Amino acid sequence: MIRIRTLASRHLCKRFYSHTPFDEYLDFPSGEPALEREQPATINSDPFDFSDIPIIKDDNNLFSSGLATPSNPLFAQSNSSMSPDSVLQEPITMTTEDFMQKLNIARSDQSFDEQKFKRFSSFLRTDTQVRQHNTRMQDIATIKNPLTVISEFNDPRLNLAIEKFIYDQMPDPLANSRSRRLVLYKNSPCVVIGKNQNPFREINFKEATIHGIPILRRYSGGGTVVHDLGNFNFSYMSSRQSFSRVEFTNALNHEINQLVGLDIGYDAPKFSLTTNDRGDIISSSSLKKVSGSAYQVSRGKSLHHGTMLLKSDLKMLSALLKLTEERKASIQDKSTDSIPSPVENLELSDTLFQFCAVEAFKRLHPAEGIEDMVYDNLLVQGDSHILKLNEVSDLPEEVLKTQHELSSWEWTIGKTPKFQLIVDDDEFQYQMTVEKGLITEIDSAEPDLDKLIGLPFSSEKISHVLTDPLKSHVMWHVDLNTRYAQLGISQLD
Q1: Cis link prior to 469 (omega < 30° from 0)?
Q2: What is the pLDDT of residues 344-387, one digit of tens each?
Q3: What does the pLDDT look like over 265-301, one tens digit per residue?
Q4: What is the pTM of this model?
Q5: How far apart are CA 215 and CA 487, in angstroms?
Q6: Is the dihedral of CA 97, 100, 105, 111 positive or negative?
Q7: CB contact at 8 A, 1 and 273
Q8: Domain 3-8+417-487: which topology?
Q9: How are beta strands 438-444 and 225-227 bridged, if at all?
């Protein structure tokens, strides 16, 4: 309902906090028990803190599913399924040491297989021009065996669209216990917010505009992150029943820790990693975060996003997420806040990181069978497959459509949860209520502001309605006179 009221008194509304964005993504079939609901976040919460979320595992199926090798190694199908009696067990938490002890893993430099790494890096370097035929993503996305997809695109919206397509097309992991996925990619500089976040409380729009840094809203929850070419992203996809916020990161830590101090011709990590009690990957020595996470659970599937700071521009990261206290206080809402954490670069090469991620995935879902074989852009390892993407022609139309949708103002800004902009200074006083990106309510003694009702919360639109000095004042407080095209966001109609 749209209303116009008079600002009776100058005060700031009390801020409320919602459940974490994880809550919205729990999609349980009828009759299944739901994961325990979290308590509302407090002002000191960490957007990556999922310590209250149960971690569910099946002792009989955690690492041993699918050890049998199908007769046909390429596009083989697995008929194994999880037992209905073993779906939900007592929630547990696994530290890195617990994980390594369970699999009887010893920390040893001898575990690094240099020849295997050379074969993998050779596959990554394969020139597109020498290929006879490329495997298209849609032709392999539904395979019922472990699949890794390595995107060599750096367009952040295209990579998010690829990730969504892989998640949507992954066969039901309950009926097909081997249909797990790993997606690896790195983006050109951008800021990515969680689905339920308010960009006006998270991002320094002025800094993003000056540097032309795109702003994106992803499909999953979690906090705001800054990506650049020094940051690598991973997405581990499994079943809802086996969801764990530490399963993949602990396996990844093990692979990376074996490289500390090694001289192998690539930049090796300078320090070892561990997992803290919130599931974050941190430095074992400084305890600074090197990887933040976000999660999505829906349709019987689970997705664990992770960022890995390899050689990121940490100064730019800080600037893009730094807002004045006055700005943060002026935006009142129920969205999920990102609480900054000290971060540190791992100083690991891209190739070594990708190799470690692939090996961690294979450790969780081991493959048996033939020696590695390469089919143009597809590497086959037993019944597991690694697909490398760098040709737009290999992508389905659905991915390109999603990429376009992710650049729209309606998605990036219009999906912002309901909030109020409260301005109370010596010059003007007003309060705006914004829903779905539109100004729906005004509290002010300024009669001209009623012209804004129904308009998008955008200085570009406001500039055509008001006159100075009120116009300049409102435009600045709305979005710092942002031109959204400079942020990769399509113009409003």
Answers
A1: yes
A2: 999 999 999 999 999 999 999 988 766 678 888 999 988 899 99
A3: 899 999 999 998 777 899 999 999 999 888 889 999 9
A4: 0.78
A5: 6
A6: negative
A7: no
A8: Enolase-like; domain 1 (3.30.390)
A9: unpaired
